[in-house]
Structure formats: C-alpha cells, structure tokens
C-alpha cells in the first residue's frame, strides 16, 4: 500500500508518499480501507518538532481521524465485519488503571492516541470503531473525532448551557470551529477571534454571535470586555491568551484549556482567580461515547462538520502547508 509519511522532522516538504507493507488484522483488530483522514495540529507538532516521535521511528505515518470500510478482521472480532463503513475513535486506554475504572476514559494514566491513518489501509483496534449511518459520508466523519470530541468535552467540563456567553480565542481552526458550532447546538452564544477577516465572515455564518479580528491579546481583552464578561473561555491557544481568557471571565466563570499553540506558559492573577471564584479546567480529547453522540448529531442534521479542503494522498504535504500557513477554516481532509 501507499502512505503519506513524515520522512524527516521540520517542514511539510518532509511529507512524502512511500510504499509500505499492507497491514494485517491481528486478534482484536480490523483493517480499514481508508476513505478519509483529517489532519490535526497535533500531527503538525509531530512534523514540525518531532513531538513524542524519535528519529528511529521515521518514516512516520501520522493521522488520527480515520473513516473507511472494514476490509478484514482478526480472530475474536465480532463487533464489525468486512464491508462495514466505520469511524475510528483514536483513544487508546489501558482499561485497567484506577482512572479507567473511575472514568471518564480520557483520564487513563496510559492514555494515548492512534496514529497511522494517512495511508491506503490502517490496522486499528476493532473495539474503537463506530458504525457510520448511511447519511454520514466518510469525509464528514473523518472531520469529527479529535477536534469535535475535544470541543464537546470542554464545553461539558465547563458546564456550558443555554444563553451562556463563550469566548473562543482562535475560533477558526478544527477545535475553534467545533466549539462555535457545538456551543450553538447547546443554545450558548460565542465570541470568536481570528487574524483573518475572511475566515471571520465565514465563522459568522456558522453561528458565531460576535467576532473580533485581532491576534493581539490586549486588543482582544478590550474588545471582549466591550461585549461583556463571559461565562466560559474555551482555550486551545494557551500562551498569553490564557491570561486574557481568565481576565474576561465573570464571577464564577470557567476556563477549559486543551492546547498551547501560542505557548506553554502564561501568567495567572491569583486574586482575580480566588476572589471572583473563577475555575480553570484542563481537558484532553473526549470519550468514545462523546464521539457516538457527535456522529448521531451529524446523522440527525443538527451538526455539519466544517471541511475546508479535501486533498489526494499525493497532496498531503499541501494539507500540512495550508495548516501551517493558517489558511484553513475548520478541517482539512485527505482522501487516500
Ligand atoms: N488536549 C487535546 O486533547 C487536544 C485535542 C485537539 C487539539 N488540541 C490542541 O489544540 C490546538 C488547536 O488544534 P487544532 O487542530 O484546532 O489547530 P488548528 O486547526 O491549526 O487551529 C487554528 C486556529 O489557531 C489559531 N492560531 C494558530 N497559530 C496561532 C498562533 N501562533 N497564535 C495565535 N493563534 C494561532 C488560528 O488563528 P487565525 O484564524 O488567526 O489563523 C486558528 O484560529 C493545538 O494546540 C492542539 O494541539 C489539543
Ligand atoms: Zn487506564
């Protein structure tokens, strides 16, 4: 088979299509003929910085959000059979640590994510497959897992409800757009930011109630406060946007954090935190059952995952270049 692999660490020029051995289905596994795989900033971290990948693992096939058709199953697999259209939940958990037993599964102390979907075939854990309804096509399905699960769980952890005002710094990427759309499903209102006017115009059509065209933390803080203090900040940017995200919360407000695109550290103001009863919540991914709910929302027409661009396997390097250049609104999907 062919796969788009990282042959070096650094820039999208290191994404090359190479031949690999066809995967086989070991016990408990299914092999998928991959129809679509979306990319995430997490994959870009690997390509740019070698995040959790060693030189000796190159060439490395990334890709966590995989949709396709089952082509083979290993011994003991009864949950799916060849011909089933499926979506992979990329979560990998041990199932036996105290955090797995307590739940949610995202707390597993050995929590990890599947990688390998940017290929014609992928061998995956059969228990992690969700059957796709006929009304959900593979490209839309592949847009859902990492971005929408993460947004879904953060909104849940931050207890977002009808009428809440939710601040989303960097609202135009995978997690950002998913947050705006899902907040809308919940009846909440959103304030989204971007450095691109064109992306913000499109974001408004997806349900954003207020948009701020700026990348400057101070300017963003002032603009949000002019709209009003927020109930919740959903923060995947980290860095200086974290301080802003805290500043603009109302008394008793919550900030969920899942990422650090803009930097791994920030300053927090203690007095503001404790005197105003603000809460900060770390969150990673969502559960497989969150993903099942998201697929149901798409099947029922309540949620339309935003796919900005589709690429052939040979153009996977371009998909990474577009993400790196901040050219995308929502998700970028490769069709191997
Ligand atoms: N913990 C988890 O489970 C989890 C899961 C998913 C994602 N994440 C993390 O969440 C982040 C977002 O992921 P994603 O896949 O949604 O990424 P993405 O699609 O690349 O996000 C693009 C968004 O981020 C903004 N942005 C990009 N670089 C920026 C910078 N240097 N400073 C300020 N804004 C910047 C863009 O703003 P413009 O519109 O101005 O270009 C755009 O709104 C990543 O850090 C990722 O690792 C974590
Ligand atoms: Zn565990």
Could you walk me through the main structural features you see in this protein, from its secondary elements to its overall organization?
- By secondary structure, the protein is of the alpha/beta class.
- The protein has two domains: 2-144 and 305-335, Medium-chain alcohol dehydrogenases, catalytic domain (Quinone Oxidoreductase, Chain A, domain 1, Alpha-Beta Complex), CATH 3.90.180; 148-282, Quinone Oxidoreductase, Chain A, domain 1 (Alpha-Beta Complex).
- It has eleven helices and 17 strands.
- Strands 3, 4, 5, 8, 9, 16 and 17 form a seven-stranded mixed β-sheet that branches.
- Strand 16, helix 11 (316-324) and strand 17 form a beta-alpha-beta unit.
- Bound molecules: NADP nicotinamide-adenine-dinucleotide phosphate (NAP) and zinc ion.
- NADP nicotinamide-adenine-dinucleotide phosphate binds next to helix 1, helix 4 and helix 5.
- InterPro entries: ADH-like_C, ADH-like_N, ER, GroES-like_sf, NAD(P)-bd_dom_sf, Zinc-ADH_QOR/CCCR.
- GO terms for molecular function: adenyl nucleotide binding; anion binding; oxidoreductase activity, acting on the CH-OH group of donors, NAD or NADP as acceptor.
- Keywords: NADP.
- It comes from Natronorubrum daqingense.
- This is Alcohol dehydrogenase.
